[in-house]
Amino acid sequence: MNNSFFHNCLKSILLAAFVLLVVLFTACQNSMVEINKVLKLDTMPEMFAKNIDIYYTDSSVLRMKTFAPELLSYNSRKENPTTLFPKGIKAIFYDKEGKAYSDLKADWAKYFKNKKLWEAKYNVVIVNIQGDTLRTEHLFADEEKQILYTQKFVRITTADGSDIQGKGGFRSNVDFTDYEFISVSGDVNND
Length: 191
Prior knowledge:
The chain is 18% helix and 49% strand. By secondary structure, the chain is an alpha+beta fold. It has two domains: 2-30; 44-187, Lipopolysaccharide (LPS) transport protein A like domain (lipopolysaccharide transport protein A fold, Sandwich).
């Protein structure tokens, strides 16, 4: 009686385990769409790099050096490929003769490949060849139009010590040598 009792209990346990496994495997079958939603694969970068140095050239002439602690590339997004610099960026720009004409620093930056547009945020600082320094919290650089612009507050300290503030924004050539403000105030050094 003990053998048949244990044998029946064992059969019942094995049958229950089999039914449980079938239920679990059936419940765990997910489509790739559902798995991608959970993993958020469409929001993950295709490329991640640390401590990068990028050199951009045009016709074998150095045009820009870029340094960043971190780079995330989202180039598979055909409608909007981007490159993100979440921990900041430093860029040095060069003219056609290979001479540096300005540099830019920002705590965050993003490049929109299709639009050929750079966006820089947080502690954005640009110094031009004349020694003028621009400070703002948000700046765009349009490669096709060759302009810098923002609608945010801008402070420029010129090489002679003048302090000019654009409370409603700013627009400049890409060299940051010819600029205009919206709603200006400031102190001019007359020395």
